Amino acid sequence: MAAKKSTRKFQAEVSRLLHLVVNSLYSNKEIFLRELVSNASDALDKQRLASLKDESLADGEPPLIRIHTDKERNVLIIEDNGIGMSKDELAQNLGTVAHSGTLKFLKEHQGDASLIGQFGVGFYSAFLVADHVTVTSRRAGSEEAWSWSSDAKETYTLEPAERAGRGTTIELKINDEQSEYLDSWRLRALVKQYSDYVTHPIELQKEHWGDDAPTEVEWEQVNSGSPLWVRPAEEIEDDEYRSFYKGLTHDFDDPLVWTHFKVEGRQLFRGLLYVPSKAPHDLFQRDHRRGVRLFVKNVFILEDAEELVPVWLRFVRGVIDSDDLPLNVSREMLQDGAITRTIRKQVIKKALDRLKQLAAAEGDDYTSFWTTFGAVLKEGMHLDHENKDRIAPLLRYRSTHGEGWTGLSEYVERMPEGQKAIYYVIGESQAAVAGSPHLEALTKRGYEVLFMTDAIDEWAVEALRTFEDKPLVSAMKADLDLEESDEDKAKMEVASGELEGLVERIKSVLGEAVADVRLSSRLTDSPACLVVPEGGQHAYLERLLRSQDKDAARTRRILEINPDHALVRNMNQLHGLQPESERLTEWVELLYDQVLLTEGSPVEDPNRLARRMTSLLQQASAAELTAAG
């Protein structure tokens, strides 16, 4: 008895589910081609595995996926010569949303297959662009072909069909709003973007214009089909790595370095990560996107896999390809889980290991990396407590030691006997910190001081705290503890008594502008400096925060004065003669403005400072003329 056409209703709630798939599940309509090509690739993999188990299914026909259009009918056609589907399989797999024939097949062939589809809803993405879909399929080993068709509303139709050979043909009646998907250039671009590394050939029908079109249909393969990252590293030339990088990133310059790896164990995934030689223009913008693409079984999933790459490695470019990464049902977003966390840890490890190798080479390449991306890598000290000890050896700073960059390990090796801490100063530029008065006592003792000039430095060093059991101490902090001889202690005690009145007068003049005034043991050449009390912020960080928010909290710093400086001694002498002198008040205010300028902070009243300077210059010039006459 001849088979007949039948119209069936979708399972209960299927109409509502289809509405969800078409209108809510996918954020990007163009995803449909990726999903249908992935399904075709799965069917070809199933055919290969089935033919290994049943030799009668091995017909020698090479695997192939073809895409072409019938513009007169507004139809897009995707066909493959994979395993195909029987009548019952069409009804079961396409008549039931999320049935997932692929998932069933995978369960039956555990350990044998590497299949893309896991959810069974990818097929329905066709209705994102099509008003009606027809699927014609012939199961391998069967003489019968069947057709399934639906408009994704209440029913679907099954009927006998004609098809030469095994496989599946999907015809999409493209709606008028999505006619771009009938254009050859658009289809080619989508295959290159999403399915370029599908291992089976994907052919697109050539379009010809004019009267010289050939009588036979011509096809051209549009996917690469051989991902570089799945090949053994020892078989790949450096020029191939560079060429792949340029194609991936559209960067004209060669990458600085790269790392190619494969991780096996509970999860299998591969990666090819690059460090560019130049920074992108938006590296420090808040919405900067990371440049690692995510593939699952060679199929492109995400442009910016931020769940796998921390923000402090956002300069890294490349690909990650996983065999079993958890995705949401639309395969557009990652699901949080143990596998995601494992891959993230490995990405961090591989990137840091490669940078460690680069640093160990002691060449110009690491210097180039550090000057370009060092400030970004430092963010990891603050944001990633788990990895801060692995990042710390990669840090580089300018210092009082010389012109070049120095690492913390090199600093510790150079520490003289008796030095107990790693010292640093923070400011907006090397020029600003190199002349800082806070260095004077440290350099006098032969201690090296690191220059920290990036906005992130204060947070980074606070997170690190120690390196090789040596505490990191700011030379600008109030609690700087330097060993003093008994003679120095005695001199300071005498000075405290002699300058007690001046100190109190300075406090009364400056009032709430400072937290305290005290004598300093860190100054040798400068008359005064401002130091940061415990829990306070360095002036540079405070300026940065206030540039973003004028209401950001201020830190009232401590004014330290040098008891041995001639200016301080002269001020003390004037205070002894005229304790309430207005000139002394002006000197105190001028000294305070001077230390503000020294640390890079703005003075409250620049015009008043200018008038004071003019007055002093007039007095000094008059004295010089009197002495000369």
Polypeptide structure, described:
The protein contains 19 helices and 23 strands. A hairpin with a 2-residue loop joins strand 12 (291-296) and strand 13 (299-302). Helix 8 (364-383) packs across helix 13. The chain is elongated, with a radius of gyration of 36 Å.
Number of domains: 4
Give the radius of gyration.
36 Å
Number of strands: 23
Oligomer: single chain
CATH architecture group name of the largest domain: 2-Layer Sandwich
CATH-defined topology of the largest domain:
Heat Shock Protein 90
Q: Please bin the fraction of helical residues.
A: 25-40%
Widest sheet: strand order? 1-6-5-4-7-3-2-8-9
Poorly predicted runs: 98-103, 109-120, 328-333
Task: Please state the average pLDDT score.
Answer: 86
CATH C-level category of the largest domain: Alpha Beta
Distance between the termini: 133 Å
Structural class: alpha+beta
Share of β-strand residues = 15-25%
Corresponding CATH superfamily of the largest domain: Histidine kinase-like ATPase, C-terminal domain
Query: What would you call the shape?
Result: elongated
* Structure annotation, total helices: 19
Sheet with most strands: 9 strands, mixed
